[in-house]
Amino acid sequence: MSDQPLIPQRITAHPLPLAGLGRGALRVLPGLALCGGVTAAAYGFEAGEAHLFGRAWLEALVLAILVGTAVRTAWTPGTRFRAGITFGAKQMLEVAVALLGLSISFRTLADVGPGLLFGIAGVVTLAIPMSFGICRLLGLPKRMAVLVACGNSICGNSAIAAVAPVIGADGDDVAASIAFTAVLGVLVVLGLPFFGAALGLSQLRFGALAGLTVYAVPQVLAAAAPVGPAAVQIGTLVKLVRVLMLGPVVLVLSMLASRLRDETDETAPAVTAGDRPKPGHVPIHRMVPPFILAFLAFATLRSAGLVPAAALVPTATVANVLTILSMAALGLGVDVRVVAKAGLRVTGAVTLSLAALGALSLGLIRVLGLA
């Protein structure tokens, strides 16, 4: 038997997953706090409007975008705020959209008939080549034209992010497209209610127009909320059907990827073989975002009467607050100076493409004879 004293073995402490979660939470806190401040200001302005004018002409959803954009224009948040702002504009937004499914019934879409579903697919199918043609006529490179066309016609930044790796777009094109889409998206949200009022559109018609033309789901909510609850419901459903068109579009573009990569009017970006997506091989999460599936699942439960009535008001309140917080985050990511830097060709291409989408959408609404 050894005379040496027993020395306890050193136990190596392995970091717990919760520690990583804690560090992640701390990293997003500054940005989320900034989003919370913008949200509080939006609620304050809404209350001020109601006190002065008897009603809030601009709701907190829209005001959060405006206040966030004003803050971003006057001051660029530092790096410590970026993680939280990004979290608010993406993950928090996705949770909010998923929860919105509990306030939506598919009966609303069924009431307008299957013609609207086929019409939405038709509008997207026509809008993409029209927008692409406009961009090319104004001299935009092919890949940039594809990004603008898909962003305008389907779902803005999400479509651009999904399409970019498939067609081999470079970082500058992607950044310019996303930044410009963010600015134009705010302008559309602010201007569309006035446009709808000038045309005398009903809630159903305006909701369909918002769902067919506005870029992001929460922006549809912001544009439709001043018009009425029916506009919000039909706008949300139409917009989500439009988002589902992203899958087929990405598949088609993946088959045409080699032609877009081999174009001669611009220098192809440096992409390694490992990073280059294979034609026809597109990750499923890029074609159908998980939060859309969650929304559809919740809407199915609501339509089937499986959601307790007592749960509807609390979840709607949570979804509304999260949506306004995400609007604040989106506003904090908008730099209006991008429009000045973009040049007349890009500005004209994006604006004319959006006008073409609006014309197609109004044509569909008229053909369907929505009440």
From TrEMBL:
It is a multi-pass membrane protein. It is found in: Cell membrane. The chain crosses the membrane at residues 24-45, 51-71, 92-110, 116-138, 145-168, 174-199, 206-228, 240-257, 291-311, 317-334, 346-368. One of its GO terms (cellular component) is plasma membrane. Keywords: Cell membrane, Membrane, Transmembrane, Transmembrane helix. The keyword Transferase does not apply. Its main location: membrane. Belongs to the UPF0324 family. This is Putative sulfate exporter family transporter. It comes from Lichenibacterium minor.
